[in-house]
């Protein structure tokens, strides 16, 4: 009995990790919801490229870094308008038992790429020329003396919203929303990458194209300071991996620059993330208001923190920002963004894995209803 009990702490420590992976379960484009397919599950028609497993990508040279683990072409291309919002709903668990996204330590970034010479339902993502449209890292406030990350909003069951550049040239594009989980990132090769691609057909009267593009793999390196990083030893001055947020400029016949080896974006520990997961593009202004947390089988606090982690977010950031590089300034640009933030504390409580799963689904349904009524 003693030997069995002595193993209990180690076994419990493994439980969160087993469900700590995930995928985009649906996206909302111009107010229309598109349900995605769970990894390795059904193959219903939708614009989200399905992945084969919820496991993270761990190598910066993995070909799956473009759109996710063995991502497959999707059958649909969703109609969108330049300047409109697109909302991503990230979950963990399985198709039969969806849970809130488990991690909350690390950034969320968005890239886009035109599907050149073909439609997006036929486009090979390995040939994509990606440009970054937003990035969000740490938000205002601390938890247990540690920074609070935008990913904590996803962990609390909220979506992530970004804006398509309003002067973007019409055409078909992939939009790549990516979470990087950094809880183990101080060990080489342990940062976890979760990219997801959605196929869009964008209309509008703009003529803008990105001033620079990158490739995946290629945009990140294993020793980038935003990938090999200790996020638990303060002060944490996070540097986003990859290029800075691209400038969308008038289309010129000379073409765009391709960054062969991107320099990381030097960022202050801020974010334009809001309770609805809002994080703007280079030209957007995001304003969000506080909404009560509707957990049904506990108080209003998201699941408790794991030992040695910051997984239990007890406050939600309410941000009003006019982002250029949405979380600070870039090494490659003298422009800066401004941000004001306030956080509201949530009440305390306790949780169990089963309660978390039930509450997570109800919580996501609540946020979806609130989002579509705003």
Q: Your description of this structure?
A:
Residues 1-18 and 266-363 have low confidence and may be disordered. Strands 1, 2, 4, 5 and 10 form a five-stranded antiparallel beta sheet that branches. This protein has a five-stranded mixed beta sheet with strand order 3-12-11-6-7, with no helix packed on it. The protein contains three helices and 21 strands. The protein is globular, with a radius of gyration of 19 Å. The chain has helices at 2-18, 151-155, 353-372, and strands spanning 22-29, 32-35, 78-81, 85-93, 98-100, 108-114, 131-136, 138-143, 146-149, 160-163, 171-181, 192-203, 208-210, 212-213, 239-240, 248-250, 257-258, 265-266, 286-287, 315-322, 338-345. 11% of the residues lie in helices and 29% in strands. The protein is mainly beta. The longest helix is centred in the last third of the chain and has 20 residues, at 353-372.
């Amino acid at each position: 009995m003693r030997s069995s009990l002595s193993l209990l702490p180690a076994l419990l420590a493994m439980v969160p990790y087993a469900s700590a992976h995930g995928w985009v379960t649906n996206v909302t484009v111009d107010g229309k919801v598109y349900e995605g397919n769970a990894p390795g599950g059904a193959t219903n028609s939708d614009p989200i490229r399905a992945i084969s497993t919820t496991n993270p990508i761990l190598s910066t040279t993995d070909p799956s870094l473009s759109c996710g683990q063995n991502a497959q072409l999707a059958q649909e291309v969703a109609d969108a308008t330049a300047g409109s919002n697109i909302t991503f709903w990230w979950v963990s668990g399985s198709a039969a038992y969806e849970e809130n996204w488990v991690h909350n330590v690390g950034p969320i970034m968005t890239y886009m790429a035109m599907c050149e010479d073909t439609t997006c339902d036929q486009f090979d993502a390995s040939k994509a020329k990606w440009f970054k449209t937003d990035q969000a890292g740490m938000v205002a406030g601390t938890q247990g003396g540690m920074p609070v990350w935008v990913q904590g909003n996803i962990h609390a069951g909220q979506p992530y919203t970004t804006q398509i550049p309003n002067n973007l040239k019409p055409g078909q594009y992939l939009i790549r929303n990516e979470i990087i989980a950094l809880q183990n990132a101080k060990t080489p090769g342990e940062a976890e990458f979760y990219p997801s691609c959605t196929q869009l057909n964008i209309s509008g009267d703009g003529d803008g194209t990105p001033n620079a593009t990158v490739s995946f793999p290629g945009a990140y390196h294993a020793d980038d300071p935003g990938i090999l990083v200790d996020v638990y030893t303060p002060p944490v001055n996070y540097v986003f991996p990859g290029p800075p947020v691209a400038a969308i400029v008038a289309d010129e016949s000379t073409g765009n620059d391709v960054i062969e080896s991107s320099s990381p974006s030097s960022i202050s520990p801020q974010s334009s993330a809001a309770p609805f997961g809002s994080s703007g593009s280079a030209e957007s202004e995001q304003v969000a208001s506080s909404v009560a947390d509707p957990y049904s089988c506990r108080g209003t606090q998201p699941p408790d923190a794991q030992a040695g982690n910051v997984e239990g977010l007890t406050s939600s950031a309410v941000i009003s920002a006019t982002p250029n590089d949405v979380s600070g300034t870039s090494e490659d640009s003298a422009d800066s963004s401004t941000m004001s933030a306030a956080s509201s504390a949530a009440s305390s409580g306790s949780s169990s894995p089963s309660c978390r799963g039930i509450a997570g689904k109800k919580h996501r349904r609540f946020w979806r209803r609130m989002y579509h009524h705003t």
